[in-house]
Write a structure and sequence with these properties.
The chain is an alpha+beta fold. The protein has one domain. It is built from 4 helices and 2 strands, in the order βααβαα. A two-stranded antiparallel ribbon has the order 1-2. The longest helix is centred in the last third of the chain and has 18 residues, at 69-86. The chain is globular.
């Protein structure tokens, strides 16, 4: 399963920062993929779309959960809303 999540630049940096706290061999491919998409993709005022697999999305969420809540709660809420909307579920 692939998902598309939209991240503003500051949110993307927060995801990378969170991933960097995990073991390198676990995250290096995902960090590289996210960086490639950031360079290749066009972003608008609402952010830039990133295409990630389910395992990568779970890894991103696990990494974010390890950062202090006050730093990540808005991003986690935004990601939850995007995923709910993409499934066609009520928000």
């Amino acid at each position: 399963m692939m998902a598309t999540v939209t991240l503003r630049d500051d949110e993307g940096r927060l995801v990378i920062e969170a991933l960097a706290e995990l073991p390198f061999k676990t995250v290096f491919e995902l960090i590289g993929d996210l960086n490639r998409q950031a360079v290749d993709g066009a972003g608008g005022p609402g952010g830039r779309p990133y295409h990630v697999g389910r395992d990568d999305l779970e890894l991103m969420l696990r990494a974010l959960a390890q950062l202090p809540y006050e730093r990540v709660h808005r991003l986690l809420e935004a990601l939850r809303a995007q995923l709910t909307q993409s499934r066609g579920e009520p928000a």
